[in-house]
What we know:
Shape: globular
Number of helices: 11
Amino acid sequence: MFVSYFPRPKLFFISAAVWALVAVLAWFFFFKNFGVHVGLPDPAPDAPPVIGVSVFITPPFIWFYIYYAVIVGLFAGVWRMLSPHKWFWWSVLGAALIMFVTYFQVEVSVAINNWYGPFYDMVQAALSKSRPVSIDEFFGGLVTFMGIAMVAVIVGVLNRFFVSHWIFRWRTAMNDYYMSHWDKLRTVEGAAQRVQEDTMRFSSNTEDLGVSFVSSVMTLIAFLPVLHALEGTVSEVPVLGSIPYPLVTAAILWSLFGTAFLALIGIKLPGLQFNNQRVEAAYRKELVYGEDHADRAKPQTMSELFSDVRKNYFRLYFNYTYFNIGRIVYLQTDNIFPYIVLSLTIIAGKITLGPMQQILNAFDQVRSSFQYLVNSWTDIVELMSIYKRLRGFEAKIEGHDVVQPDDVHLEKVI
């Protein structure tokens, strides 16, 4: 799965994680303000914030682009020398580009959040007639938003185009690797499906979950300071009362509760999904044999195999029922949770519409980041199932026994 596309995968991913951590710490503690030495100074402390698409070409952003390119170049250069790989340009530099675009999309969200404040304050001023608001000023605010949105659309479309090719290259690498060992693999039950279907699903799911995880981490890094900066008007929250960092604390506690709760009620799903694919494969294989051999796919045999399929599906449906009940209840409550947290502040009239919208958006971003497992649990279950199938598939290459569908005991996973 990984050795076909990445150079020395275990060492590569460990070194990538360590290098990323070093790069992040070095940025925040040493290099963030270093741009002044190369003619890219930070804005003055009393300068108004840049609102709109021009923020992406301000000196701090340009300096970060340069820093990221240098960090990636050093890492890729070392790996290019240590372990040349057929798919190096796609797997290493392609992944770095996807990570950069993910960071950029998070910054687009920050730019939109910064736009909320002045725009909604302007709306409130117009509605309350506290100051005159011209039609040009109003539409100027909308044009500013459209500029940011167009950047998001263009970058998002180009990124999806590139990611589609990146995923297919990974599938191609796995396909070439498995086909080079086809003499060993052809006797494995469901071999054709694993090469033709599971490779694409694995690469696609891994990319989706990996990018979502990185995006969640980057969103936390970007929005936690924003949320903390907006806490000035929030002195207390329901139940918890007056506590330090009320918004940040409430977001973290609520998200951790949701993650633990849904992980607990969905703990059986990976095993059921895995067994579902195995009993389906056993049923399908016997049908295929029955097309060419009259002595195969007899009614009694097919009835027994389909009984296993039915039994696993019914148990899967039951487990997904209570999992979905818990998930939907939590997510529906999650929609109003920010308003509950801000209820005392809103009723006391301590906040205006603009900052409230900024807080709601930043709060939502932070909560969503902490709820990575909540939002991705179904995809994680599917990926774990695919990984188990492909790992068992690869065991044949390594000379180990492959677990066949006949060995499935569904009662062990319930």
